[in-house]
Each structure stands twice: as C-alpha cells, then as structure tokens.
Design a protein that fits this description.
Blueprint: E1 16-19, E2 24-26, E3 29-30, E4 34-37, E5 40-42, E6 45-52, E7 57-69, E8 72-84, E9 89-101, E10 106-108, E11 111-113
Parallel strand pairs: 1-4, 2-5, 3-6, 4-6, 5-7, 6-7, 7-8, 8-9, 9-10, 9-11
C-alpha cells in the first residue's frame, strides 16, 4: 500500500469548541482556537475567536482577535474586530480596532475604537 506524500508544512486547522446552552462554567477559558458559546460563563475568556450565541451569557472579560456577540456580556471586551448583533446586550467597555454595530443592539459602557492609519 502506497501512502501519498504529505505536504512539507501542512496548514494548521483552526479548532472550534462548541459549548452548548445547558453548560455553565465558573472559571476562565483560554485557547488558540474558536469558541462558540451558547451557555453561561462566569470568568474571563482569552481565545482567537468568540461567537457568543443569543442565549449565551458572559460575566467577565473577553480578549480575542474577533468577537461576534449575539448574547449578553457584563465585563470588558478587548478585540481586533467586534460584531454586535441586534440581539446583543452589552454592559461593558469595548476596546477594538473595528466595530460593527447592528441596529437594536444595547450597549452601556465606553467605546474605544482604534483610529485608521
């Protein structure tokens, strides 16, 4: 049996963790991949990308390259790119390079957006 040659530098696959709506976490989450959160987190999250589903809740600080927020956050969001959908409910300071805010989103807090070069 002949095995095909492997590429010299295979592209790393981006890992995605899905945390369902019935999951409640007390503690911090960190990792290099994507997290899709529909449950509840009391703690900080430091990941490459975050998708907070409409039923998801985070009480803590978020640090990510990209964050898409459909749910509820109390804390601080620090990311390169932040998207807050019409169902997003935010009580947090947001520090971002780019912000996409959809009509209907609710935000209480300070916004700090990096100026374009």
């Amino acid at each position: 049996m002949v095995t095909p040659p492997q590429p010299a530098n295979p592209k790393p696959t981006r890992q995605r963790s899905v945390l369902q709506s019935d999951l409640q976490i007390d503690g911090d989450i960190s990792g290099a991949g994507m997290v899709d959160l529909a449950g509840s987190l009391v703690g900080n999250i430091d990941v490459q990308g975050l998708v907070l589903q409409a039923e998801g809740r985070i009480q803590g600080n978020i640090h990510a390259s990209s964050a898409t927020i459909d749910g509820c956050i109390i804390g601080t969001i620090r990311a390169e790119s932040v998207v807050i959908s019409s169902t997003g409910r935010i009580k947090a300071d947001i520090l971002a390079d780019r912000l996409d805010l959809h009509s209907g989103a609710k935000i209480i807090g300070a916004l700090s957006i990096k100026p374009s070069a």
